[in-house]
Write the structure tokens for this entry.
Amino acid sequence: MRHLMTPLDLTVEELDRLMETADDIIIHPEKYAHVCEGRILATLFYEPSTRTRLSFEAAMLRLGGRTMGFSEASSSSAAKGESVADTIRVVSCFADIAAMRHFKEGAPMVAAQFSRIPVINAGDGGHQHPTQTLTDLMTIRAIKGRLGGMKIGMCGDLKFGRTVHSLIRALLRYDNISFVFVSPDELRLPDYMIEELHAHPGVSYTEVTRLEAVLPELDVLYMTRVQRERFFNEEDYVRLKDYYVLDSNKMSLAGKDMIVLHPLPRVNEISVEVDNDPRARYFDQVQNGMYIRMALILMLLGIEV
Ligand code: NCD
């Protein structure tokens, strides 16, 4: 039995296969419409979500399966003090696969240790978010035709932004990747991520605070929201929340083929005027997210189509 906790749980070949399956699902949805009949996906969400939870549910429903779950800790037995370990033992009796989001780093890993069904980490605190990474990779590959040979800017809250951490991990394994990390000093990448970068001498990176200066050289700009819920005090959040706002003026500094991604939800960091720019691809990302989660559910359930 397999779980997905970090993108590194999948080999590069497996990532390729997932993306190929997702592409096939887009072309031939009817082939996949009943393959999960009789199977149940549990969505165990201890933290708010729109896209991730609904896209997992849509993925399972479009495979012919069913879903159940909770969307806030207060409506589960966590409110009575039940541990994640006990909850997953219980859910293992009812469902065939589970997606868990938790505000505590590592909670889905604990669940995986006690689970009798595959567990997918749907975001754990400020740590990792591997299925958002699958979505990001699929989108970059679909638009750029490749995943290596790329200069990728990541901008915003690189400290608490789990989507950033997972995407870096996944991209480290491709050739010729260079990163430009754009953040205020307080929101720089955590040390454990810097150490992972140093362990890959083939990958280069720079850390800067000004977005304008680096925009012209990027192939991909990955914008992120300042993660309010992970701040210790509101004052710091208020001071940093509008540090970067991508608007049409800044977009005029970028190359004509640079694409803008964002895991969403967006707050103020991308001005709505950018939405109509053909380089803004964050809503395509959402659509891809459902297809790649369909492919992932099939892989973890061991269903060949
Ligand atoms: C992200 C997350 O939950 O980490 N959202 C998502 O799943 N698409 C990004 C965020 O909340 O800022």
